[in-house]
């Protein structure tokens, strides 16, 4: 098992917690069509918060639960910086967590 898995699992829970604290957690999933987007971050069909909840967190949990190889790179913070350019203070904690996630993915095994 990759030694980063426990830290990544913890970070996924912290990201989920922050989405919930901000009131950005949704109880109902977007449509299957919206989730099937092939655009990066599903920018054509989902908000960034929806993408985090319904695509990113779900995929990462599946990777961890099935002991699949972790991604080689992550650039989620870059997207968050663009999306939240006008909401810097409100998103400080979430962006910090995403930066830490990116760093965990970049760190050596």
TrEMBL record:
Transmembrane segments: none annotated. Residues 8-104 form the YqcC-like domain. It comes from the Bacteria. GO terms for biological process: single-species biofilm formation. InterPro entries: UCP006257, YqcC-like_dom, YqcC-like_sf. This is YqcC family protein. Pfam families: DUF446 (PF04287).
């Amino acid at each position: 098992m990759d030694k980063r898995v426990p830290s990544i699992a913890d970070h996924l829970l912290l990201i989920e917690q922050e989405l919930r604290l901000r009131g950005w957690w949704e109880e109902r999933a977007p449509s299957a069509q919206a989730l099937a987007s092939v655009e990066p971050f599903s920018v054509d069909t989902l908000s960034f918060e929806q993408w985090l909840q319904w695509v990113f967190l779900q995929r990462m949990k599946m990777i961890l639960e099935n002991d699949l190889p972790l991604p080689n790179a992550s650039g989620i913070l870059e997207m968050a910086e663009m999306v939240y350019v006008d909401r810097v203070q409100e998103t400080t904690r979430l962006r910090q967590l995403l930066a830490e996630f990116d760093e965990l993915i970049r760190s050596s095994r």
